[in-house]
Amino acid sequence: MTTAEDQSVSGTSDAVTAGSHATEIARSGAATFRSGGGAVDQQRAAAVIGAALEGIRGAIRDQKVTYEEFDAFKRWLIGVSDTGEWPLFLDVYLEFEVEKVAAQTQDGSVGTILGPFWLDGQAQLDSPATLPMRDDEPGTPMILAGQVTGTDGKPLAGAKVDIWHTDEEGWYSGFASKPPAGNLRGVVTADAEGRYEIHTRKPAPYTIPLDGPTGQMTLAAGWSPWRPAHIHLLVSAPGHRTLTTQLFFTGDPYLGNDVASADKPELTLDPQPTGNGSEVRSDRDFVLEPE
């Protein structure tokens, strides 16, 4: 992940480190919070796999793909495997479509993609909470607060708000060498009224890793590699479906051109000054549907 200041510096995004960590998480299945997970019958497998392959075959026919291009594609696939970037590629370019399908049968607050950078086992904190950070953590101090309720409007006491985001330089802890382990990550327990308050730093926009095959493909196609600044959240409570979502910021230059196609107008925050120095605050309530 790189910011505007370092996107042109070769080798700063460390695709191999990020990719290998994301691959291990995806392989364990630890990042699966959505419904499903059971065995897929043969007929369903044949239908989905067949449709995917036919889509690729159709592209070959329509675009009259040459052997040189086909060989380049094979080398690119090998590169994705060698760097462990499959979770990154799939989450950036395909997950948003899966999320759209899932959203058709879901109620409650608006969700979006999980992405490849969630980590289990983070600090357990009670609200009001301050996320783990360096003593001199850069960035604008920010408070995110709100209430978690069910679709019936009743507060969900003790709801969990699992939160993670980049630092001001665009780095996720656990996926780059710069931030310390657990930096700007935590699982916050709401109070008896379902209310939470989280003190953190405002994240920055960043590019997906540019030194790996996913970034190279993106640049080769002339697409923007940028993600708007955002905060990831998993909001959960017993007996309710876990909400997977992200929150973005008004005025971000990459809104509407998110490489992961994950930003939505309903998920945009407009933080306001608190009067405490440069600190800003946004309030966001979440509504969870029953399982």
Describe the structure.
Keywords: Dioxygenase, Iron, Metal-binding, Oxidoreductase. With 291 residues, the chain is of the alpha/beta class. It has a single domain, classed as Sandwich (Protocatechuate 3,4-Dioxygenase, subunit A). It contains 6 helices and 14 strands. The strands form 3 sheets. It has a 6-stranded mixed beta sheet with strand order 1-5-4-9-10-11, with no helix packed on it. Strands 2, 3, 6, 12, 13 and 14 form a 6-stranded mixed beta sheet that branches. A two-stranded antiparallel ribbon has the order 7-8. The longest helix is centred in the N-terminal third of the chain and has 22 residues. The chain is globular. 36% of the residues are buried. About 3% of the residues have low confidence.
| Separate helix tally | 6
**Portion in strands:** 15-25%
> Biggest β-sheet: count, sense, barrel?
6 strands, mixed
Give the fraction of residues assigned to helices. 25-40%
Task: Report the CATH C-level class.
Answer: Mainly Beta
CATH topology: Protocatechuate 3,4-Dioxygenase, subunit A
How many strands? Answer: 14
Assign the CATH superfamily.
Aromatic compound dioxygenase
Which residues form runs of ≥5 with pLDDT under 50? 4-13
Give the N-to-C terminal Cα separation: 35 Å
Query: What is the residue-mean pLDDT, rounded to a whole number?
Result: 91
The CATH architecture designation is Sandwich
Structural class: alpha/beta
Widest beta sheet: strand line-up: 1-5-4-9-10-11
| Topology order in helix (H) and strand (E) letters | HHHHHEEEEEEEHEEEEEEE
What characteristic shape results from the CA principal axes? globular
Number of domains: 1
Evaluate the radius of gyration. 20 Å
